[in-house]
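Researcher: I'd like a structural prediction for the single chain below. Treat it as a standalone chain; there are no partners to consider.
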Amino acid sequence: MKIIQTALLVLLSTIGLFCTAQQLNKSTTQNDIFASMDANADSILRKTGTYSVSIGIVKDGKTYTRHYGELDKGQGNTANNNTLFEIASVTKICTGLLMAQAVLEGKIKLNDDIREYINGNYPNIEYEGHPVRIKDVISFKTGLDRDLPDTRELRKKISDSTAFYFRKLDEPYSKEKFFKDLKVVKVDTIPGTKYKYSNLSLELSAHILENVYHKSYAELLKKNIFSKLNMKSTRLNVPQGKKIANGYNENHVLMPHLINHLWGSEGYLKSNLNDLTKFLAYQLDTTNRIVRESQRNVLNSKENWYGYFWDGIEVADNGKFCHKQGGAYGTQTFFTVFPERNLGIVIIVNINAPNTYDEIFNAVLRIVEDLKPESKAKQIYGYKLIGDKVIFIYTHPETLNAGLINSVNVAGSFNKWNFEDKAYRMTARNNNIFELAIPKSQFKKGEMYRFKFIINNSALVTAPRNAFNVEKSLDRNLTLKVF
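Model: Treating it as a single chain, here is the predicted structure.
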């Protein structure tokens, strides 16, 4: 967990900038939001080598957008709210919403064998008598291959040419060939037991939706999502004359755009920041039953979960955290919502490099920290020394739902950072306070230990800004010293 201090409006003299704000009053909150966007955009530009960064934030019903850099080096063509980007796997969230709606309307059931809704006979889509169910599909636990056409060989050796080979493989691939290949795919484990990312599952989902609604996948997207949200520019196929923003790989080689002659439900949508911030606002509407269903813990996991095609839904010190990354050949989009904080953030960069995901993920976490209420006076955080005990204490914010917490652990240099150490499992003392007493004798006097809290064995708690005992590193671990 990395936090960056706000600052650096001097950035504006060195990078291109386009900004808008809707429904805003001039206030410290607005200034803090823009300052955080500026600082984090600068960090992303420096650390990833991307030419362009676009950031959209929806907070408490208000929308903020800014754009930095240029789409193509030396061209001065800064993106704006209408610039079309390939949003790749963010498309999956839209497919997930359609699947959630189908479940709520009784068109499909979570425990149904998917073959009930697929044209043709597929005895191969099961494992030792265990069928692939709808709930396995939406949670990436089918055991099915990653892609059709099969891309495994191409993924073994990545080079500047790989994207062009992918495109060459996809260009002639038709639905007819898809169903022919589907006859020979293998399910490699009992469905529902093992996570396995599968674009194949998404294309099957689009086919299932078409069969139960008797409408094309594109029509379903438009009717049930885009028209309702006034997302006028988001679509699978861009009209002639409309330009999609260029994207680059880590060596700044211009990358081709994606191509898809199937349904495109796994990653073929194009959108702009204007539409994506509308989509953020929709995903923050906790009164909407389709949204709630799409973010639900379908498999009742005690750790993180996937909802309907999210990359992950976790519970941390910022509450429920839903995130999805979309990676095209030359762009990456990170789409995330914190429903309990009424906060959504989307970041788009026009580079796809090995470190891009980590940098934009961490930028999101920094922005969230920047937008929290002002910290109180500095204090020792996370533990107290009482008698011969070290009392570890985690306090979940009272405004958040502590009922989503199944466990809180302490991990640190004193237990080799073992996140699942049962000896360091905390006990709930009331609705939002968790404690653990450890004898001082288990710690060497005067030695500095580092530690963090882990919620549900998956989410690391960010050290609060008013914590006095934080090491000066990007990880911002809490520190402990026994006297």
